Amino acid sequence: MTRPKILFLCTGNSARSQIAEAFLRAYAGEHFDVHSAGLEPKGFILPEALSAMQERGLDMKDQRSKGVNEYLGRVHFSHVITVCGHAEENCPTIFLNMGRREHWPFDDPAKFEGSDGERLDRVRKLCGQVDQRVRQWLAGQDITPSSSLPA
After folding, report:
1. What is the share, in percent, of the chain residues with pLDDT greater than 70?
2. What pTM did the predictor assign?
3. Which domains does the chain show, CATH number per domain?
4. C-alpha–C-alpha distance, residues 92 and 70, integer Å
5. Catalytic-residue membership of 10
6. Catalytic residue among 6, 9, 10, 26
7. Options 28, 37, 80, 84, the catalytic residue
8. What is the CA radius of gyration of the chain?
9. What is the pLDDT of residues 76-105, one digit of tens each?
10. Which residue is catalytic, options 91, 94, 98, 143?
């Protein structure tokens, strides 16, 4: 049996979609084939996102920033979840006809200002918000997360 394919889509694929991908894979990777992409990929994952997720016990070093073009016409997703307004407004038409489409708006950590510590604190908060939303989504799918991560 093939697992449903999930795509988290944002603008740069440098934080929000990467974080959501990591949480869903950790909690329910046996149930879903999880991906993320960006409309305008940055080519890197924000260091603050890597640090904040490492603190939560999730290492994203094997993930990479990639463009949505890697999937267009090649992969059919059962769920496309946009995690920023720009991606929601500019989602490629091909994804509009795929499975279920949802929008989970989160602040853009690439735009967080302040000292290194202040930006990291805001990314930590964002990780908590994404974690909570992924858990909520899984509950709606009648799936209990398979692993427990620190809060």
Report:
1. 91
2. 0.92
3. 5-140 (3.40.50.2300)
4. 13
5. yes
6. 10
7. 84
8. 14
9. 899 999 998 888 887 766 665 567 889 999
10. 91
